[in-house]
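Retry 2 of 3 after timeout on previous attempt. Resubmitting structure tokens to design endpoint.
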């Protein structure tokens, strides 16, 4: 999800000009040395839809509670939604926080 900012400025001839700037999408690294299962829901009983290879980075659109998982970044019940119908445990994502860093999924 890109974030846009619109600024109104004045041109050299005195007229108004709108400028749109798009911020880069924030991505987070997966723990080094791990290939991570991507599941169809927020828990280990959900089907594996794909596997993220080592060195992957992910964007997090929203987060929700689910099964508790222990990983390189601690034990957590937070699951990150990385695409439509795709979740990974936050225990494998370096977000810089032990809590929620994105809105809760609806």
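Retry 2 succeeded. Sequence:
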């Amino acid at each position: 999800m890109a974030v846009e900012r619109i600024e109104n400025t004045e041109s050299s001839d005195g007229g108004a000009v709108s400028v749109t700037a798009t911020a880069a999408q924030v991505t987070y690294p997966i723990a080094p040395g791990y290939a991570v299962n991507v599941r169809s829901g927020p828990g280990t009983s959900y089907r594996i839809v794909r596997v993220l290879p080592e060195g992957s980075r992910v964007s997090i659109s929203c987060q929700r509670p689910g099964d508790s998982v222990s990983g390189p970044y601690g034990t957590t019940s937070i699951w990150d939604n990385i695409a439509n119908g795709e979740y990974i445990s936050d225990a494998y994502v370096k977000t810089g926080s032990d809590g929620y860093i994105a809105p809760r999924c609806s």
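Attempt log closed. The longest strand covers residues 62-71.
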